[in-house]
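Fig. S4 source data, part A: sequence.
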Amino acid sequence: MSYGDPRFDRRYAREYEGQYGSGNQINIGLLVRLIPILFGVCAVGFTMVRGCQQGPFGRVQIVAMKPAQEAKLGMQAFQEVLSEARVIKRGPAVDKVREIAKRLIRATGNESFQKLIGTSMPEFQWELEVVDDRQVNAFCLPGGKIVVYTAILPVAETDAGLATVIGHEIAHALAHHGAERMAQQQMVQIGLTSASFSMGDMDYRKRQQLLQVLNAGAKFGILSYSRKHESEADHMGLLLMAAAGYDPRESIRFWERMSSATGSGSAPPEFMSTHPNHKTRVHDLTRWLPEAEPLYQNSESKSKTQVLPHFR
């Protein structure tokens, strides 16, 4: 028999099937494994196309919801926080916090600031409340809902220090970081679910081990993404405070004080944290100062750095 002889082809096919099984069986088994992955790829692709938009500093970002949806969730969270909080309405410290926030909000319309960021600023219904709490923290929810805890004031120490904090938090909202993180988590969950279904016939123990590895990879991927958001908010916040007339060099002094106040002895390694460590932040802020200085020098109302009023 020679190559090309029909008898050779039939014999070869029988021997191949005897050694490797039916080609149809192989294809069907492979197809069964691929179907969940293909569905997952399509779902991730749909999420990316639907949520794709221009992000800060020229990067492309994927978001999971529209601005109106963000604002609605932000308002709900804002109301929940305030319903359980001791809100402070009056006093010199509260007045100063409101003044700083208003200047920062007004600076979001600064054309030079917007040009450096590379995107137009969303229109928010801004609100701010000061809450008596021991948390050394502040935040700005989607839609422009700001909460400043009184415990952050001694660490901020000055109006420029507090502008560093509030500017950073406002930047998160302006950059739609919440909607972007939600989109990433959705895509990760789709990928993990697809992988789980594609391993349906795998040994249970091996399957769990593989899923644990995938989950760990997804976790550190999300952490890395969160650190990028924090760094981006630092960058945007620095430019915003400068445009509002607050000395951007004070941001470095604030993070040095924050490092002393919180300590770093028990902090996890940076790659396991949602935030850059303080040294990284100071290094990056120093690197961005040449961008911020002209905004500060050209600001219509430069502020001489002043110590904040005592809350009590």
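Fig. S4 source data, part B ends here. DSSP finds eleven helices and six strands in the chain.
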